[in-house]
Design brief:
By secondary structure, the protein is α+β, with helices and mostly antiparallel strands. The protein has 3 domains: 89 residues, no CATH class; 127 residues; 133 residues, no CATH class. The protein contains 10 helices and 13 strands. The strands form 4 sheets. A 5-stranded antiparallel beta sheet has the order 3-4-5-6-7. The protein is globular, with a radius of gyration of 21 Å.
Amino acid sequence: MRTFECHHCNPPSRLFFDNTQCVVCDAELGWCPVCHAIAAMLPDNEVGYRCANAGCGTALVKCFNYASENVCNRMQTPADHAAYAGLCDCCRHNAVIPDLSIEGHRERWAALEAAKRRLFYTLDLIGLPHPAPQDDSPLPLSFAFMADALPDAGLWRSTGSTEKVYTGHAQGLITINLMETDDAERERLRVDMNESHRTLIGHFRHEIGHYYWDLLVKGQDEDASRAVFGNHDDPTYAEALERYYEQGPAPDWARSHVSAYATMHAWEDFAETFAAYLDIVAVLDTAENLGMRRAANDGGINGMILSYQQVGLVLNELNREMGMLDMVPLVITPAIRDKLEYIHQVVSRGAASADSLR
């Protein structure tokens, strides 16, 4: 993720991806879909706003969830505003949002939207399509943000509903349980499950991996996927899940898998590796744009891995100085490298196919 500049300021001040107001000149900010940047938004009585970035000046309108709900910071062109019922390129994917009559749900929704925007930034960076439900697509992408429990005195309690919300993916719909927005609860789950990380953006990156398996591998490249990740048809997913929670992962799982959970089933191995690939892309993009020379690479998987390892060494040591968890805990073995290479090939094919349709 790069930083941006407020061209309403003189000299320009630095802006960040989640900003909605410049702290120097107080200008309203938003993501411009034309120049692909966070920019100052100049009020315009005729169209709403215009992008203040030099050479842009595009007429823009706030996303409904920015203007009315304050959980977004993206703008859109008047044409897209009319075509997508006032929702930006991220918010138009929402199928279910939290019950806003419940105290705290708006803030939790905002946290989910912030993570989703970062996911979409990375998907756009690598060129993968993410068709919205309103688009003519055989597998549109949508999100459901739901809760099966409510916080009470710092703890989560059942709402009495017999339906439990499971974070997961099914036929293009990604569901995230609102409980994952609670830092304390998420950390408790991380420790209970012996995970190195458990983050909102991590959930999005994992579940989108399942989506892209369905979109780019299913019925198209399954034999190659089996050769890398194993047979996704045998055992069945239900059998693999039961075995995993009864027996746990093999002691030497780290030699060939990015996480213990990746050993559960071939589909989970693909999704966990896909999430790790997005971690690499995002970390290198941020590090390079912040001036870390070690992040520069040739775009091939070997160069990306080498740069990620070099940047990771720096980040891990900085975190250790602050008594925090390693930022980059993954050790990339030859077997994991081969899996990442397959993901890189899938992404490259998907991006090329998307380009041909534009």
